[in-house]
Amino acid sequence: MKFAAGLPIVAMSDPIAIRDFAQALDGAEFDVISTAGHVLAAPAGRFPDRPTPTYAGPFHDPFVLFGYLAGMTRRLHFRSGVLILPLLPTALVAKQAAELQLLSGSRFELGVGISWNTLEYEALNQDFRARGKRMEEQIAVLRRLWTEPYVNFEGRWHKLDGVGLNRLPTSPIPIWIGSGNDDVVLRRVARLADGWFPISDPTEAVPKLKEYARAAGRDADSIGFTGRVMAGPGGPAAWVESAKKAQALGATHLALGTPPDVQGEAVLKRLLEARQVLGAELSA
């Protein structure tokens, strides 16, 4: 089992605090650190039916943040959780990801999603309604740009006429998809993703995902799956129960989080405690 933790979704402003947070996870043998990948923020209250932190920000830029942290850590992998891929030019994402993979020593994992936020799509001049299909084509283009020095490709949104990065990643860059449990997105994950991290309870979705992967001609067990453990007031017994439930579903990773009432330095302390408890219990 691999362990993951995220920086708070609202960007931390102190670069030393960010460094210390990442280095503490690294030293405690966490495997993955993640951060959200929204580009723009909106004022609190703009979407009253949504949790304010998910749109009000401010947000880190994952490529800049992970480039900063790569030279300060030794084992942590860096995963965008998630980059809103259809907002961005595909070739630029390919370039940034390949560069980060090189400079981090092959520790970058690209987590992507499509988001619900229409305002970002409007501001970045992208079609909100086509975002799912566009992301599928983007993933195909990314994989070719990472494996062929020069690419010829013509699709609905991309035309590449013998161009490419001309310096390929030394190891594959895994693509994780963050999504809900709708059939259309589970089929997308089953066809295209190296890993999946659900945004809602995955209990009923996991068997479907495996079925769709087999139907797509893939080894269902080759797709990574991140379960979630909230290190909340129930204490270690509740954390272990959640972790074992995710493990029974086939989770390859556990993303550890803390409830909103845990703030400041207590967040890191709780994460380290949960990592220690779960590491001991799941390896016993």
What's the gist of this structure?
By secondary structure, this protein is of the alpha/beta class. The protein has ten helices and ten strands. Helix 3 (62-70) runs parallel beside helix 4, helix 7 (183-192) packs across helix 8 and helix 9 crosses helix 10.
In words, what does this structure look like?
This protein has about 280 residues and is of the alpha/beta class. It folds into 2 domains: about 160 residues, Luciferase-like domain (TIM Barrel, Alpha-Beta Barrel); about 60 residues, no CATH class. About 40% of the residues lie in helices and about 20% in strands. The protein has 10 helices and 10 strands. The protein has an 8-stranded parallel β-barrel with strand order 1-2-3-4-7-8-9-10, surrounded by 5 helices. Strands 5-6 form a two-stranded antiparallel ribbon. Helix 4 packs across helix 6. The two termini are about 10 Å apart. The mean pLDDT is about 95.
Which terms would index this structure?
about 280 residues, alpha/beta, TIM Barrel, 2 domains, eight-stranded parallel barrel, two-stranded antiparallel ribbon, 10 strands, about 20% strand
